[in-house]
TrEMBL record:
It comes from the Eukaryota. This is Duffy-binding-like domain-containing protein. Transmembrane segments: none annotated. It holds the Pfam family DBL_C. It comes from Plasmodium falciparum Tanzania.
Length: 699
């Protein structure tokens, strides 16, 4: 303790104002008995400050952090924030922007925000408190995420050991911080340094910046002390903030009580492995390892882009491993597609309409992955597109507060984004990916494509051999051999053309019959997919006339997949329209389509008319395959939605009505005519939803 205090006084002697520096010359010779009266005691150790947080019975810090990070029991800020509103010199609304990680968006800074004593030592305490609480919560979230990953992994591997369920905590108990969490601590400390130096690019921290600036402004006004710059302050106290982060890991995440044995081992390791000036992590563009003191001095864009790549590679590999088992089975015994169909059952079972839908876990995992990989591609493009501007900023805009060696390395060796991306690909998290999930950021079409095991069932079916599954290359029907899509398209008899309007965000284009929807704020774009469908060897096959590899999964699919996708797209668009129209009417102060909503209502009216015609054709074509059974059309549609569409999608469209059956019986969902026995005839659920939406815009 004495050695630590002596060292601290030496570090602070040039930077901090003490009572000794204000000693009048007349008191150079101290009176007897007063030799130590004017000597200021050293500031409290970082671990002492952390201990006070956990001993505070009011739980103020933890309550504040909870409200910041959670809402109604759910985690807030779970997505990367990439938009042109970020306060960055290089954000570009047309080309790209810096992307802020979820971890940074909810980073705890309340002690700095509420700071009322504006001295360097008070600021030190506030930073230690903030970083310690942040690390404590991050460790809890890290363990929860690892537990979830292991639960999913247990379903993928036979005879998984339960002893590995809390391996991360066991490591920490032994004084070892898991490598990927240590990496996260590096990222976090770098963000706190940005705050201190006023280089944080998040615009939501004005109060924090104001308080930090006041501390250094007060210091510069003091005539009796040396002016302290933010960089000076960090060089003095950065190690204390790091030590506070380490100390917080000694507290149990459930009881918030200190585990002394764990503390002793961790603090013992702090003197060697985790010492501030020597601790390293595997990454950071160095051949072997990167020192913490160097890494935190890198501009946030480059730190965050690397963090994004590490997270992407780890999560993508895990998700694809789960998809492989969900769609092919634990031992490769299944062959399912992303619509939940069994690819070995190509002919409809007229007696069991839903028997082919045995792969809902595959459908669920694939849909989740498709949404996730689409979001990741957008995030990647935004960060990639701004790289050149960031490189230019190295020489023109960045102050002398960043790591000169790293900046020179960027300017000399990573002048183009392609070279930078190759280095990201070679990072520790990205280079260990498996064959079917290899990552190459220089080939984004391959890296961000839909999962291989989520492909639609081949139209000619599949076969299994000792080498695994493969598609049937041809099919013989009525003495004719069909080999590919061209053969199917050339069939002249029994074909039907189906046009399907699909909303999409890739291009701001609309078909001529929906020009009214352009620039009204409901859809970013709508495309018209034209399909040719034909009955071939007891299978209903559809071929897309104009195939775009960047948009479509496959050019030829079974009609059952097309029918399911029509319903999924309809539900998504219905929710989107309903939300936009409802919001518009609320702004108008009533329940009628006014106050600038006229164009929106005209767009929706036209959309309803066109989609109604589509629905009649796709519904009747699919249902006709099962005629002769005891299933009526209304029951068929309702059962299909209840069985196959994710429950959240159904819940969103039915609103306050409890079930789809109740929706069918609600006002306006009955036909004007009646059945032969005089009972009321109900429309199917989709027709009912059309009616509800039409009623809303016509009222």
């Amino acid at each position: 303790m004495e050695q630590r205090s002596q060292q601290h006084n030496e570090d602070s002697s040039d930077a901090l104002e003490t009572h000794n520096s204000r000693m009048p010359a007349s008191l150079d010779e101290k009176p007897s008995g007063y030799e130590n009266k004017c000597t200021c005691p050293p500031p409290p150790e970082a671990c002492e400050i952390v201990q006070k947080i956990f001993h505070d019975k009011t739980g103020t810090h933890f309550n504040e952090a909870c409200s910041l990070k959670y809402s109604h029991g759910k985690e807030k800020h779970t997505q990367w924030k990439c938009n042109s509103h970020i306060s960055s010199k290089t954000s570009d609304k047309d080309n790209g922007s810096v992307c802020i990680p979820p971890r940074r968006q909810k980073m705890y800074t309340k002690p700095i925000e509420t700071l009322n004593k504006m001295s360097p030592l008070d600021l030190r305490t506030a930073f230690i408190e903030s970083a310690a609480v942040e690390t404590f919560f991050s460790w809890h979230e890290y363990k929860v995420e690892k537990k979830k990953e292991k639960e999913e992994q247990a379903q993928l591997v036979v005879n998984t050991s339960e002893d590995d369920s809390d391996a991360e905590q066991k490591k920490l108990n032994g004084g070892e911080i898991p490598e990927d969490f240590l990496r996260q601590m590096f990222y976090t400390l770098g963000d706190y340094r940005d705050l201190c130096l006023g280089k944080d690019i998040d615009s939501d921290i004005k109060t924090v910046k104001t308080n930090i600036n006041k501390v250094f402004t007060n210091s510069s006004k003091s005539a009796s002390s040396k002016t302290i710059t933010p960089n000076d302050w960090w060089e003095t106290y950065g190690k204390d903030i790091w030590e506070g982060m380490l100390c917080s890991l000694s507290y149990d995440t459930k009881t918030q009580k200190k585990v002394q044995e764990e503390h002793d081992k961790l603090m013992g390791a702090t003197k060697t492995i985790y010492k501030y000036n020597t601790v390293t992590f595997n990454g950071g563009f160095n051949e072997n390892s990167t020192k913490l003191t160097n890494f935190v001095k890198r501009p946030p864009y480059f730190r965050w882009f690397e963090e994004w790549a590490d997270e992407f590679c780890r999560k993508r590999t895990h998700k694809l491993e789960k998809i492989k088992v969900d769609c092919r089975g634990l031992n490769g015994q299944n062959n399912c597609d992303d619509d939940g169909f069994d690819c070995t059952q190509m002919v409809p079972n007229k007696h069991e309409i839903f028997k082919d839908f045995i792969c809902q876990s595959c459908a669920t995992s694939c849909k989740s992955y498709k949404q996730w990989i689409s979001a990741k591609k957008k995030e990647f493009n935004k960060q990639q597109n701004i790289y050149d501007q960031e490189i230019q900023n190295i020489e023109s805009n960045y102050d002398k507060i960043y790591d000169d060696k790293f900046l020179r390395q960027l300017s000399n060796d990573y002048i183009s984004v392609d070279v930078f991306l190759k280095k990201l690909k070679d990072g520790p998290c990205c280079k260990n990916n498996i064959k079917y999930s290899r990552i190459n950021f220089n080939n984004p079409d391959e890296t961000f494509k839909h999962a291989e095991y989520c492909a639609p069932c081949p139209v000619f079916g599949v076969k299994h051999s000792r080498n695994g599954w493969s598609s049937n290359s041809q099919k013989t029907c009525d003495g004719i051999i069909y080999k590919d899509t061209r053969d199917i398209k050339n069939i002249k008899h029994s074909t039907e053309k189906l046009n399907m309007l699909v909303s999409h965000n890739s291009e701001n284009r609309f078909p001529s019959n929906l020009n009214i929807c352009e620039k009204v704020g409901i859809f970013e774009g709508i495309r018209n997919d034209e399909w040719t469908c034909v009955d071939l060897c007891k299978s209903d096959i559809c071929v897309l006339e104009k195939f775009n590899n960047d948009i479509h999964d496959k050019q030829n699919i079974l009609f059952r997949s097309l029918f399911k996708r029509w319903l999924e797209n309809f539900l998504e668009d219905y929710n989107k329209i309903n939300n936009k129209i409802s919001h518009c009417m609320k702004n108008g102060g009533g329940d009628i389509c006014i106050n600038g909503c006229e164009n929106k209502c005209e767009c929706v009216d036209k959309w309803i008319k066109l989609k109604k015609k589509e629905w009649e054709k796709v519904r009747d074509r699919y249902f006709n395959q099962y005629k002769g059974g005891d299933t009526d059309l209304k029951f068929f549609v309702r059962s299909f939605l209840e069985t196959l569409i994710p429950q959240t999608d159904v819940d969103n469209v039915i609103g306050k009505v409890k079930t789809l059956s109740d929706l069918e019986k609600s006002t306006g969902c009955t036909s004007s005519d009646t059945s032969e026995n005089g009972q009321i005839k109900y429309d199917d659920v989709v027709e009912c939803l059309f009616y509800k939406l039409q009623e809303k815009i016509d009222t």
